[in-house]
Design a protein that fits this description.
Cytochrome Bc1 Complex, Chain D, domain 2; 4 strands; elongated
Length: 139
């Protein structure tokens, strides 16, 4: 009983901190796994499993200057696609990209989180609020 009185608060605090760490880690890992699954389901057929693109037809996503320069456009591009010619790493692409209208806002965020975490670890991801706001203002 003396042990619990003396160390009970320390043990309880450690358990609470461990629980918080576990939930944060699990939540983050779960979101990235969800993003990877959604990427492979909706994006990899064209952009490749590793984001390498398809020669001169479809631009790469991994290591692409366009992605890091236009990060805030990604939600709109994923949802509504693109028709314009773009330049990625000095190469021009003008193959239209169909949008994925069936994706929910949080699914789009998960795909972006997966892409940025996998291929642009120095880039900060977009918050759910930012993704929602960007999607509300797509042109």
């Amino acid at each position: 009983m003396k042990f619990l009185k003396k160390y009970g608060i320390v043990i309880l605090s450690a358990m609470v901190l461990a629980g918080i760490f576990y939930l944060r880690y699990y939540s983050s890992t779960s979101r990235l796994l969800k993003g990877e699954k959604l990427y492979k389901q909706h994006c990899a057929n064209c952009h490749g499993d590793e984001g390498q693109g398809l020669k001169k037809l479809i631009p790469p996503l991994a290591g692409a200057d366009y992605v890091s320069q236009h990060k805030k456009n990604l939600p709109c591009i994923i949802r509504y696609g693109m028709k314009d010619e773009i330049t990625v790493n000095g190469q021009s692409y003008n193959q239209p990209m169909a949008g994925i209208l069936i994706l929910e806002d949080d699914q789009i965020k998960s795909i972006i989180d997966y892409m940025l975490t996998s291929w642009y670890p120095e880039e900060e991801t977009l918050s759910q609020g930012e993704v929602r706001e960007i999607l509300q203002n797509c042109q």
